[in-house]
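Aim 2 progress update. The chain analyzed this quarter is reproduced below.
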Amino acid sequence: MQSILKTLFILLCLSLMINTVKSQNCNCSEAFDQTVQTYEQDYSLFQFKVTDENRKLYNAHTALMRQKAMQQESVTDCKQVLEQWLDFFRDGHTYIRISAETELNSEKIKISEKRFKSDYKKLAYHENPLLGIWTSKAYTVAIIPNPEGREKEADFVGVLLESTNENWSKDDVKFELTTIFGNRYNAKFYMGNHSPRTTTAEQQNTQQLSFRNNIGDWTKVWPATDMANTISEVDLKFNQFHFSEVEGIPYLRFPDFFTVEPAYVDSIVKANHDKLIAADFIIVDVRDNNGGNDATYYPVLPYILNGPIKIPNSGLWMSKGNIAQFLESSGLAGKPLEEFDEEEREMYDYVMSLEGTAFFQNPEYDSTYEPDTIYSPSKKVILLTDENTVSSGETFVFRANQSDKVVVYGQNTAGIIDGFNGLTKNIGCFNLTYPSSFRANDVQENPIDPYGIAPDVFVDEDVDVLSYSIEHMKELIRQEK
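Predicted structure tokens:
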């Protein structure tokens, strides 16, 4: 049975990449009902998000959103209703995307580079550093104020000037920006197939505009600016994994845990090993880290930990729908029950007996992890976090902060960690993604969602946390001597 359980857990994890059940109906009311059914039955944290204490509130919210869904005709408007319904759970691992086969953006705004440059001078566009000509990979756009009379609400629009992507042509709308505060924006970005994706963006400096969710960075190419000469390496490479030094202090930047492989991180760490162990302290920056693969940060742990840490054992929610995905990935789908061999039948019977339960491969609450080698066990570590540190970024913070060497500076992390391993279900117009796993077997009693992991030293987002943390750490070390 032990080998069967191990096989079961591996196959269940593999099944998390499978899309299931496709529907052809794009009626918003029916899509809403399918969405509710999916999340109520298959979302691992639903049973903790909706309890006897708030069930009436949830039922009223669902009834209200169902009424709104009945009034929607466009796929985009329907998606907004579904997303508002999802907001009840306050879980960033639950999201809805429009299927590529459905409503695609075809809007065009007539523009020419010559006219844009003329307007730039006449209309004082220079007063806003966002306005100008920007490029990213296959695309070059002019970012302009939202034209008067345009039906879609936004503050700025990125209109295509040229592209090497044959699916795009001049005057196509590539993205829309609506100001949140300062240089931060809510964004609707149109992907390579013209399907819309909701995200956020931030203008890092006069030459760099960054979109979240791995969409990428844009570089301003006109008008030219010499501001780049005054921008630090940390700011210029903020959205890239890199090693640098700040005032001679080793600095490791992780914008996520998926764009580089663990082997590459390991090579960078080894190349800078002497600097990392010689410094009084090092800095690890996971602000705006939107998660990925936990293995990515393991090469850094020998420099962060000062002993063993506890890692809670995770589990899987065995709903009927999730079990169906496991069986699909196991190769048993479509095979008549009478043709199962003894081991297959034993596994099948066991899996079916788990329906409606949480499956934990390891019955113990947690496991112990300790690197083979620990470097500079008495040296300090600055760990920078903010409200955009999510998912595996938070897992890293949770584990690293068990070390006495680490001091966490910044704001609470996002609180998107209790449920993970997203399954995706296609219901025709939409792809529904929801967590199928539990971070630990006590997420109901000791949740991290939705408030996140608090820093040791809170630093307001308007304060330069990098400079402050360095000053604070130097004073801390001085007082401890």
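The chain has a mean pLDDT of 89. The chain is about 30% helix and 25% strand. These observations will guide the mutagenesis experiments scheduled for the next reporting period.
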